[in-house]
Amino acid sequence: MVNQRRHISGAVYVLLLTAPVLWGLVSQTCNGRSQSPVNIVTSKVLPDERLTPFHFTGYKETFYGSLINTGHSVQLNLPSSIQIKGGNLDDEYKAIQFHLHWGKDGGRGSEHTIDGEKFPMEMHIVHIKEGYDSLAEASKDSTGVAVLGFFFQVLGKHNFKKMSNIQYKFDNTNTKPYFRYNGSLTTPDCAEAVVWTLFESTIPLSRNQLAAFNQLRFYDGQKMVNNYRPVQPLNGRQVYYSSGQLALVSSLLLVVNVSH
Ligand SMILES: [Zn+2]
Predict the structure, then answer these.
(1) CATH number of the domain that 228 lies in?
(2) 9-35 pLDDT, tens per residue?
(3) Is 72 an annotated catalytic residue?
(4) Which residue out of 7, 72, 158, 260 is catalytically annotated?
Protein backbone atom coordinates (compact mmCIF):
# COMPACT_ATOMS: atom_id res chain seq x y z
CA MET A 1 0.00 0.00 0.00
CA VAL A 2 2.76 2.36 1.02
CA ASN A 3 4.68 1.46 -2.10
CA GLN A 4 1.68 2.13 -4.24
CA ARG A 5 1.28 5.61 -2.72
CA ARG A 6 4.89 6.38 -3.39
CA HIS A 7 4.46 5.26 -6.94
CA ILE A 8 1.45 7.55 -7.41
CA SER A 9 3.13 10.63 -5.93
CA GLY A 10 6.12 10.00 -8.21
CA ALA A 11 3.84 9.94 -11.23
CA VAL A 12 2.19 13.20 -10.17
CA TYR A 13 5.56 14.82 -9.80
CA VAL A 14 6.53 13.80 -13.34
CA LEU A 15 3.23 15.20 -14.58
CA LEU A 16 3.91 18.52 -12.85
CA LEU A 17 7.35 18.74 -14.34
CA THR A 18 6.07 18.17 -17.84
CA ALA A 19 3.26 20.74 -17.60
CA PRO A 20 4.88 24.21 -17.60
CA VAL A 21 1.65 25.88 -16.51
CA LEU A 22 1.91 24.02 -13.18
CA TRP A 23 5.58 24.73 -12.47
CA GLY A 24 4.60 27.43 -9.98
CA LEU A 25 3.46 24.57 -7.74
CA VAL A 26 6.92 22.98 -7.90
CA SER A 27 8.89 26.19 -7.41
CA GLN A 28 7.52 29.59 -6.42
CA THR A 29 10.26 31.21 -8.49
CA CYS A 30 8.43 30.04 -11.64
CA ASN A 31 5.70 32.58 -10.78
CA GLY A 32 8.25 35.44 -10.69
CA ARG A 33 8.10 38.66 -12.67
CA SER A 34 11.27 38.22 -14.74
CA GLN A 35 10.63 34.85 -16.31
CA SER A 36 11.71 33.33 -19.63
CA PRO A 37 11.10 32.72 -22.45
CA VAL A 38 9.50 35.86 -23.85
CA ASN A 39 8.14 37.12 -27.14
CA ILE A 40 10.43 39.76 -28.65
CA VAL A 41 8.57 42.56 -30.41
CA THR A 42 11.18 43.95 -32.81
CA SER A 43 9.47 47.35 -33.11
CA LYS A 44 9.93 47.82 -29.35
CA VAL A 45 13.58 46.76 -28.92
CA LEU A 46 16.08 49.48 -28.01
CA PRO A 47 19.42 49.66 -29.85
CA ASP A 48 22.23 49.54 -27.29
CA GLU A 49 25.77 50.39 -28.37
CA ARG A 50 27.19 48.71 -25.25
CA LEU A 51 26.18 45.38 -26.79
CA THR A 52 29.55 44.83 -28.44
CA PRO A 53 30.56 41.59 -30.21
CA PHE A 54 31.39 38.62 -28.00
CA HIS A 55 34.83 37.20 -27.64
CA PHE A 56 34.65 33.42 -27.76
CA THR A 57 37.40 31.28 -26.25
CA GLY A 58 37.52 27.58 -27.06
CA TYR A 59 34.52 27.83 -29.34
CA LYS A 60 36.77 27.30 -32.32
CA GLU A 61 37.51 23.75 -31.27
CA THR A 62 35.30 21.00 -32.58
CA PHE A 63 33.79 18.87 -29.86
CA TYR A 64 32.22 15.47 -30.19
CA GLY A 65 30.18 14.09 -27.38
CA SER A 66 27.24 11.86 -26.74
CA LEU A 67 23.97 13.56 -26.09
CA ILE A 68 22.49 12.88 -22.67
CA ASN A 69 18.73 12.41 -22.42
CA THR A 70 17.93 14.50 -19.33
CA GLY A 71 14.25 13.59 -19.34
CA HIS A 72 13.19 17.02 -20.54
CA SER A 73 15.75 17.67 -23.25
CA VAL A 74 18.93 16.33 -24.75
CA GLN A 75 22.07 17.84 -23.39
CA LEU A 76 25.75 17.86 -24.14
CA ASN A 77 28.05 18.82 -21.27
CA LEU A 78 30.78 21.24 -22.27
CA PRO A 79 34.31 21.72 -20.95
CA SER A 80 34.88 24.91 -18.90
CA SER A 81 37.67 25.84 -21.32
CA ILE A 82 34.88 27.19 -23.52
CA GLN A 83 34.33 30.78 -22.44
CA ILE A 84 32.68 33.99 -23.49
CA LYS A 85 33.24 37.63 -22.61
CA GLY A 86 32.31 40.98 -24.11
CA GLY A 87 28.77 41.66 -25.26
CA ASN A 88 28.27 43.90 -22.20
CA LEU A 89 28.52 40.90 -19.89
CA ASP A 90 29.90 42.05 -16.53
CA ASP A 91 32.30 39.13 -16.23
CA GLU A 92 33.82 36.20 -18.06
CA TYR A 93 31.51 33.18 -18.28
CA LYS A 94 32.39 29.51 -18.80
CA ALA A 95 30.24 27.01 -20.66
CA ILE A 96 28.64 24.12 -18.81
CA GLN A 97 26.24 22.54 -21.31
CA PHE A 98 24.01 23.02 -24.27
CA HIS A 99 20.57 21.59 -24.92
CA LEU A 100 17.70 21.94 -27.33
CA HIS A 101 13.97 22.65 -27.37
CA TRP A 102 11.75 21.47 -30.21
CA GLY A 103 8.18 20.83 -31.30
CA LYS A 104 6.24 17.84 -32.54
CA ASP A 105 6.39 16.10 -35.93
CA GLY A 106 8.49 18.87 -37.43
CA GLY A 107 6.27 21.57 -35.93
CA ARG A 108 7.48 24.67 -34.19
CA GLY A 109 9.07 24.29 -30.79
CA SER A 110 11.34 27.21 -29.97
CA GLU A 111 10.91 28.81 -26.55
CA HIS A 112 11.46 32.44 -27.48
CA THR A 113 9.43 33.94 -30.28
CA ILE A 114 10.21 36.90 -32.53
CA ASP A 115 7.16 39.05 -33.31
CA GLY A 116 5.03 36.08 -32.33
CA GLU A 117 6.84 33.73 -34.68
CA LYS A 118 7.96 30.41 -33.28
CA PHE A 119 10.88 28.54 -34.84
CA PRO A 120 11.19 24.73 -35.26
CA MET A 121 13.99 24.44 -32.70
CA GLU A 122 16.04 26.54 -30.27
CA MET A 123 19.47 25.77 -28.85
CA HIS A 124 20.65 27.09 -25.50
CA ILE A 125 24.35 27.24 -24.66
CA VAL A 126 24.47 27.69 -20.90
CA HIS A 127 27.40 29.49 -19.25
CA ILE A 128 28.05 30.47 -15.63
CA LYS A 129 30.27 33.22 -14.21
CA GLU A 130 33.91 32.19 -14.05
CA GLY A 131 34.01 32.22 -10.22
CA TYR A 132 31.16 29.74 -9.72
CA ASP A 133 31.36 25.96 -9.63
CA SER A 134 27.81 24.99 -10.51
CA LEU A 135 24.58 26.18 -12.06
CA ALA A 136 22.96 26.03 -8.60
CA GLU A 137 25.59 28.41 -7.21
CA ALA A 138 25.37 30.79 -10.20
CA SER A 139 21.55 30.79 -9.95
CA LYS A 140 21.76 32.80 -6.72
CA ASP A 141 23.34 35.73 -8.60
CA SER A 142 20.94 37.80 -10.76
CA THR A 143 23.56 37.81 -13.55
CA GLY A 144 25.20 34.51 -12.63
CA VAL A 145 24.15 32.68 -15.80
CA ALA A 146 24.58 33.71 -19.45
CA VAL A 147 22.68 31.74 -22.07
CA LEU A 148 23.29 32.10 -25.79
CA GLY A 149 20.18 31.17 -27.76
CA PHE A 150 20.08 30.18 -31.43
CA PHE A 151 17.02 29.53 -33.56
CA PHE A 152 16.92 26.83 -36.22
CA GLN A 153 15.08 27.07 -39.51
CA VAL A 154 14.25 24.04 -41.67
CA LEU A 155 15.81 24.30 -45.11
CA GLY A 156 15.15 21.81 -47.89
CA LYS A 157 15.15 18.04 -47.68
CA HIS A 158 18.85 17.29 -47.57
CA ASN A 159 19.93 13.84 -46.57
CA PHE A 160 22.62 14.72 -44.09
CA LYS A 161 25.08 11.94 -43.34
CA LYS A 162 24.00 9.95 -40.31
CA MET A 163 25.90 10.83 -37.17
CA SER A 164 25.37 9.75 -33.59
CA ASN A 165 27.06 12.84 -32.22
CA ILE A 166 26.72 16.56 -32.41
CA GLN A 167 29.47 18.58 -33.92
CA TYR A 168 29.59 22.30 -33.59
CA LYS A 169 32.08 24.92 -34.46
CA PHE A 170 32.30 28.67 -34.00
CA ASP A 171 34.57 31.34 -35.29
CA ASN A 172 36.11 32.79 -32.16
CA THR A 173 35.65 36.52 -32.38
CA ASN A 174 32.48 37.19 -34.29
CA THR A 175 28.81 37.55 -33.67
CA LYS A 176 25.71 38.34 -35.57
CA PRO A 177 23.24 40.93 -34.29
CA TYR A 178 21.52 39.79 -31.14
CA PHE A 179 18.78 40.61 -28.63
CA ARG A 180 19.47 41.01 -24.91
CA TYR A 181 17.24 40.91 -21.86
CA ASN A 182 17.33 39.67 -18.26
CA GLY A 183 15.26 36.62 -17.46
CA SER A 184 15.24 33.16 -15.98
CA LEU A 185 16.00 29.50 -16.53
CA THR A 186 13.09 28.03 -18.50
CA THR A 187 12.82 24.85 -16.40
CA PRO A 188 12.26 24.60 -12.63
CA ASP A 189 13.45 26.16 -10.44
CA CYS A 190 13.15 28.98 -13.02
CA ALA A 191 15.86 31.02 -11.21
CA GLU A 192 15.86 34.67 -12.32
CA ALA A 193 19.60 34.67 -12.87
CA VAL A 194 19.99 34.67 -16.64
CA VAL A 195 21.44 37.28 -18.99
CA TRP A 196 19.81 36.17 -22.23
CA THR A 197 21.40 36.65 -25.66
CA LEU A 198 19.33 35.57 -28.66
CA PHE A 199 20.97 35.69 -32.06
CA GLU A 200 18.83 37.03 -34.83
CA SER A 201 20.08 34.89 -37.70
CA THR A 202 18.87 31.31 -37.87
CA ILE A 203 20.82 28.08 -38.28
CA PRO A 204 19.74 25.78 -41.12
CA LEU A 205 18.44 22.34 -40.23
CA SER A 206 17.15 19.55 -42.46
CA ARG A 207 13.75 17.95 -41.98
CA ASN A 208 15.49 14.62 -41.29
CA GLN A 209 17.54 16.15 -38.50
CA LEU A 210 14.46 17.63 -36.91
CA ALA A 211 12.61 14.30 -37.27
CA ALA A 212 15.39 12.54 -35.31
CA PHE A 213 14.34 14.45 -32.20
CA ASN A 214 10.87 12.97 -32.38
CA GLN A 215 12.30 9.55 -31.49
CA LEU A 216 13.37 10.69 -28.01
CA ARG A 217 11.22 9.93 -24.99
CA PHE A 218 10.46 11.56 -21.66
CA TYR A 219 11.11 9.56 -18.46
CA ASP A 220 7.45 8.52 -18.37
CA GLY A 221 7.76 6.88 -21.81
CA GLN A 222 5.88 9.58 -23.68
CA LYS A 223 7.50 10.89 -26.83
CA MET A 224 9.74 13.84 -26.05
CA VAL A 225 8.03 16.45 -28.14
CA ASN A 226 7.02 20.04 -27.44
CA ASN A 227 9.65 20.32 -24.70
CA TYR A 228 9.42 24.08 -24.52
CA ARG A 229 7.98 26.48 -21.98
CA PRO A 230 5.38 28.95 -23.30
CA VAL A 231 6.31 32.64 -23.44
CA GLN A 232 6.06 34.58 -20.18
CA PRO A 233 5.03 38.22 -19.67
CA LEU A 234 7.77 40.85 -19.95
CA ASN A 235 6.31 42.79 -16.98
CA GLY A 236 7.96 46.02 -18.12
CA ARG A 237 11.36 44.54 -18.95
CA GLN A 238 13.17 46.15 -21.88
CA VAL A 239 14.69 44.05 -24.67
CA TYR A 240 17.84 45.55 -26.24
CA TYR A 241 19.39 45.03 -29.66
CA SER A 242 23.04 45.08 -30.67
CA SER A 243 22.53 47.30 -33.70
CA GLY A 244 25.33 49.26 -35.34
CA GLN A 245 27.81 46.40 -35.51
CA LEU A 246 26.89 44.80 -38.75
CA ALA A 247 30.02 46.04 -40.50
CA LEU A 248 32.27 44.62 -37.80
CA VAL A 249 31.11 41.06 -37.78
CA SER A 250 31.82 38.18 -40.03
CA SER A 251 29.93 34.96 -40.27
CA LEU A 252 29.09 32.63 -37.46
CA LEU A 253 29.67 29.07 -38.41
CA LEU A 254 27.76 26.44 -36.62
CA VAL A 255 27.33 22.91 -37.79
CA VAL A 256 24.95 20.61 -36.06
CA ASN A 257 24.35 17.10 -37.28
CA VAL A 258 22.00 15.02 -35.25
CA SER A 259 20.66 11.56 -35.71
CA HIS A 260 19.65 8.78 -33.40
ZN1 LIG B 1 16.76 25.76 -22.60
Answers:
(1) 3.10.200.10
(2) 444 444 445 567 777 777 889 999 999
(3) yes
(4) 72
